[in-house]
Amino acid sequence: MTATQVKHEVKDLSYATLGKQRIEWASREMPVLRQIRDQFAKDKPLEGLRMVACCHVTTETANLAIALKAGGADAVLIASNPLSTQDDTAASLVADYGIPVFAIKGEDNETYNRHINIALDHHPNIIIDDGSDVTAALIQNRKDQIKEIIGTTEETTTGINRLRAMYNDGVLTFPAMNVNDADTKHFFDNRYGTGQSTIDGIIRATNVLLAGKVVVVGGYGWCSKGVAMRAAGMGANVVVTEVDHIRALEAAMDGFRVMPMNEAAKIGDVIVTLTGNKHVVASHHFDNMKDGAIVCNAGHFDIELDLKSLREKAKEVKEVRPFTEQYILPNGKSVIVLGEGRLINLASAEGHPSAVMDMSFANQAKGSEYLALNKGKLEAGIHSIPREVDREIARLKLNAMGVKIDDLSDDQLKYMNSWTEGTD
């Protein structure tokens, strides 16, 4: 089948050559997913299943899509964010791997929603979701297709929160695999992946020196912890804002200043939100910011920043660098917004490093296999990735890194499982 015969809507198929080179480069750093792909090619656990993957269309996601196809899946890939698509990667998946892709960097909301409907037209049995947009659209608009669903897998904290809300409302009537909370996902992807890629995106967009700057981090979940840690490592003076007492206490004991956003907005040179909630930076916060304050988001949706209010009050808006807009306020001060408020680590950079996405997408692949092998056996609701799968992914990653660990002796195992042995 030629590229033009594969259903697609991508920027330009002529980008495919570069895209293939980059997909292959990413694969070098994804040894766990490579092993799963080889196993899938042999066992075909997804044979005959229609799948939709709604993900950031990056070189790492490309390697996941290739693994799914190797496992026998009839898979369609769409973007989970309008600014996260790498157009050369999308082109290569169509031209070189025969995988239908509907994703264009910078697509408007109308196109984004149309692509979701195209994905649902594929009548998926398994959905790999990032933010639960496809799952939500299915439940809201395609109730007749719910009976075709074996299950879904979810990549993000935001998506898991939405799935819990669906379950509490009684509308999630099929199983959902909680990929986000697997230890080999959130400990590494959320913390180290988001930490590095968010700082990368801010620097690529602005070329700002972080050393000596006040960097305000909205939230202190795993993603925020990663950003705070990396910003501090580059010499920034980090301030954390929180609504959760335990997380705020943790941030304070990690050595960061903690204060409400009302106060932090007044002193921040760079403000980045990572909460999954709306209007973390609200209209009144913009009014109190320093002249030239840089604001961006690395949470899931752009509504973490109240950009509608900012646009309404601004006297002028102009692009001063790629993915960098300057808003001139009535008081004469300017606010710099990066990446249209969307995920800055994907808008102006390349997202998480391949080495960390190796584990995240290994969980997605194995989660999909688990759903397929347990079709009709799992209850509706949210299910954890099996502990043995989580540990196996960690073992494979350590082996690939050349890291060895100790094994418990028989005597130690006996001691750990006994309540009669204690201090001699």
UniProtKB/TrEMBL annotation:
Cofactor(s) demanded: NAD(+)
EC numbers, comma separated: 3.13.2.1
Keyword NAD applies: yes
Listed pathway(s): Amino-acid biosynthesis; L-homocysteine biosynthesis; L-homocysteine from S-adenosyl-L-homocysteine: step 1/1
One Gene Ontology cellular component annotation held by this UniProt entry: cytosol
Domain of life: Bacteria
InterPro entries: Adenosylhomocyst_ase-like_sf (IPR042172), Adenosylhomocysteinase-like (IPR000043), Ado_hCys_hydrolase_NAD-bd (IPR015878), NAD(P)-bd_dom_sf (IPR036291)
Protein name: Adenosylhomocysteinase
